[in-house]
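Hello,

Following up on my earlier ticket. Below are the two sequence lines again, exactly as submitted.
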Amino acid sequence: MGSLVLEALSKRYGSSTAVERVDLEVTQGEMVALLGPSGCGKTTTLRMVAGFIPPTAGRVIIGGQDVTHTPPYARDTGMVFQSYALFPHMSVAQNVAFGLEMRKVGRAERDARVMEALRLVRLDHLADRLPRQLSGGQQQRVALARALVVNPAVFLLDEPLSNLDAKLRGEVRMEIRALQQRLGLTTLIVTHDQEEALTMADRLVVMERGRVRQVGTAEELYEHPADPFVAGFVGRCNLIPGRLEAADAFRAESGALLHCDSGAAPGPAPTGAALLALRPERIGLAPDPAGRARITAVTYLGAQTEYHVEQDGTALLVARPTAPLGDPLRRLAVGDAVVLSWDAAAARLLPAE
Amino acid sequence: MAALVLPAGLLVVMLLVAPMALLARISLNRFSPTELMVEATTAENYWRAVQDPYYQQVLGTTLGVALGCTVLALALGFPAAYWLARMESRWKSLATILVLFPLLVGNVVRSAGWMALLGNEGAINAALMGAGITGGPLPLLYNGGAVVVGIVAVVLPYMILTLAAVIEGIPRQAEEAAANLGGRPMTVFRRVVLPLALPGVVAGSVLVFILCMNAYATPVLLGGPQFKMMAPAVYDQFVRGNNWPFGAALAFILLAVTLVLTVVGSTLLGRRYRAA
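Thanks for your patience. The regenerated structure is below:
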């Protein structure tokens, strides 16, 4: 058990930069997600923590010890690979026992701990199977047990759910989170799936092109995104280019005047070109023949209904809980006039990129 | 679909099965110095080959060279195959061609090259004597060592390419997982890479062993007149001694020994690691 600290960790390949000065601290028992699109450097960062990639600069500190130049086998990390990477020629029990054998744990204790770890992931009845005889979800749990059985100081998960089908993914997500909390594991998880990151992690690190864009809890990132990239990547967001005209008025490039509260964001309001960030579910909508907004598309999604709306040349996405049958909202169709409303504090002003 | 194998099948029947059957029949004939081959049905050629200490020694030498070359090719080939299989750069296809390069030169030409290198007036001895390290030439040519070196140089490409094809199929992440769990490089090799590469080890070794057992030009040219292996011995009987029945018997003994050892060896090797 221990904490994980990354100090100005960088990786460059020739002139291209994969990871640029990443600073991060994962405290004991905390689960942090590295979130970003493919190629943002999140996997490279994780692999530098595991020791598979030597960093160009910076330090990796596990449990207070600098392990930047320690080979992977001497680092106390337990990693679950995206492909699970089970040893195909070993049984489930042999797979799980491998790490204990490497640590020279005696036979009796080894067997006991292997069975305990398999019970933890509810696979003790399949101990003698070979990996190829298991389903994807079961293989995934073997990989978890194999990494957990050695009590690693840091638990590393590389897109652990990407090879599972949607239904299973939800279950395994809860299962991993419950295990992580029960065992108090210091965990770093890499994912490109924002829902995965939001539901599992205590804190999220949003990365893009090798750099950390923002670090915070799910709520902080969603409510107070630092920049348009974060606003667009964590949840969905209408990003309207334009500039601030008054403390509570934003002039969109299309000419529409939108109200906002420039004081809601910390720091000075941007004076030049800016973006107005407006979450689709924070926009209210009501049918009104005199309304200036027109519906261009309606998508019924069951619990939610999405309306594509155009107002004064600005396209906006509006998401509302689906109204009960008989409600006038249910009769809205393409071409209908509506009126939009939002809380000024819900409209955040972001610097243009 | 079965018709697709017909052309190749016919060729095999005509060019392999038929001559083999003929050779089998000949091996049962009797040899007479005056009439050469006399129609008979006798096992005396086989008896003579098995009991004659000379041919026992020839077979022993052949086995020793073939086993030695196979082990050596495996030991030298595995690291190279691993390197080739794990190579990611654009030079990989070039490296593969370089591995195949020795096969572009015929056996006789290659052996001539070795002779120019290893002979008493060869490049190595000339350099050693020129530098004053040795007073006279070292006996580098016309011995078992020269033959082994010559054969290994021929069979190494087969071993490397067979192994590399199998190693490429071993997921790199399995190696990383083993390292992550505390396995040092040698342990990862022994516990993960080697067992998973075993099909390639068996296939490569069988291929190389068969090639070595049947080597002809290299033992003749690099081994010299005193050094005898089975393939040249068979040739001697057919062409020099005109003793076709005995030559045919030697050929079948060589075939049988190769076949039995190949089957036994690959079965044992396969079973040992499947159990582990």
